[in-house]
Amino acid sequence: xxxxxxxxxxxxxxxxxxxxxxxxxxxxxxxxxxxxxxxxxxxxxxxxxxxxxxxxxxxxxxxxxxxxxxxxxxxxxxxxxxxxxxxxxxxxxxxxxxxxxxxxxxxxxxxxxxxxxxxxxxxxxxxxxxxxxxxxxxxxxxxxxxxxxxxxxxxxxxxxxxxxxxxxxxxxxxxxxxxxxxxxxxxxxxxxxxxxxxxxxxxxxxxxxxxxxxxxxxxxxxxxxxxxxxxxxxxxxxxxxxxxxxxxxxxxxxxxxxxxxxxxxxxxxxxxxxxxxxxxxxxxxxxxxxxxxxxxxxxxxxxxxxxxxxxxxxxxxxxxxxxxxx
Length: 326
Hints:
Layout: H1 2-15, H2 24-33, H3 39-46, E1 54-55, E2 58-63, H4 65-68, E3 72-77, E4 83-90, H5 97-101, H6 106-113, E5 123-129, E6 132-138, E7 143-144, H7 145-149, H8 156-174, E8 188-192, E9 195-198, H9 222-227, H10 242-258, H11 271-280, H12 291-300, H13 312-320
Antiparallel strand pairs: 1-2, 2-3, 3-4, 4-6, 5-6, 7-8, 8-9
Helix pairs in contact: 8-10, 8-13, 10-12
């Protein structure tokens, strides 16, 4: 607030020998050095059209673009002092063609904010004002599966643990008639030795992985989106479903065991090549993969949706039976 800024200015003027407040950059530098202002906040204020740094009860303190992608920032709850992640858009952002073609849904975000679970990320609130739209979620500690796999494949035991957590998360969404629609190694985080968490997109409605207007808040390389696209997406008008979520889980499981995308020539496939691959080519698995695990994965990635597990609950039971499979 302006009153807070005036108080800080008076404090700084006193502590620095009454430096003139007319020296705006000196004052800003001192505010950064004393922890009152972040470099990100200063840069935001200096933009031709400044982005808001206070949204409802939240203060925007830093960018998370390197970690999470465009429009992600770190926020602090002013009243509780807790740190949160925030995805935010200005009016200009939402005028981009991809958002106009596939706009955010505040109603969807409110639905997601009411759903919680130990293996799901927690979305706290959505703020929609004339000049901006923002969603706030808890901060996750750890690293995405994609980064973890850059160091090598998971063990069978770790992959089963990952699947238990992620299937629990997906079952919680499906039970509330919500489709994830963006399951890739970017949406699964290892938060501790014993826990994986599923990130979700609470505000952009799920869409085909091949969509030209793809703008999920979970920043995902095109190759990973296409690698997890169920065969039925080759049909025009196909929408994400429970079955396409299960297919994506199977691909991610195989990816985790191999340490790479489990389809041949994946780095050379165009969109048509990916569609033919999902329709015709068997998924790749390591030779050392135990047969009970391989059987689960093959059920998940069956070309015909009716040949897959019926739902996430049936998959959870199959995974529970894998104790000792490693």
